[in-house]
Design a protein that fits this description.
Elements (H helix, E strand, L loop, with lengths): L4 H21 L4 E5 L2 E5 L3 E3 L6 E3 L5 H30 L4 H33 L6 E2 L1 H26 L1
Helix pairs in contact: 1-2, 1-4, 2-3, 3-4
Amino acid sequence: MEIKAMLIGFILAIIAFVFHLIGFASPFWVNADILSHSIHYGLWKVCGVLTSGCLDITNPPDWLKASQAFAILAFICFLAAVVCSALKLFVLKDKKIILFATIGAVFVGAFCVLLSIAIYAGKKDNLTGGSSLFNFHFAFAFCIIGMLVAIASGICFILELKNS
């Protein structure tokens, strides 16, 4: 029984989507433990400042808006890649154009994640006041893992294109 690159790419696209979804939504992009008090920031919320709960980031700076926008675009692209690969795998097996759309979506999504994390990492000190106590946390890493898995998924889709 031959394991198809399309099936592996589909599974990897789902994994990339899930990792990105968790990282994208979690308020744990950066974290600091200051005097037994945990403060953490995400793309959308800040937690542990002034209260024990989380607050929405209101009036975000332009760089954070850009990071949020690229993360949203990545989310949409990864979702499109999962849907397109499922269509190609289970419904429209003979339509090569769906495979091209899948490859495009997964690589554009990975590039958008790269832009989102690069912007956030470059401007993190603006958000945290330049404090060296803040370190990148699991949600930031999950987005990076999602990006890398998406690239692997795209490679599988390219191999499927080459073999078909």
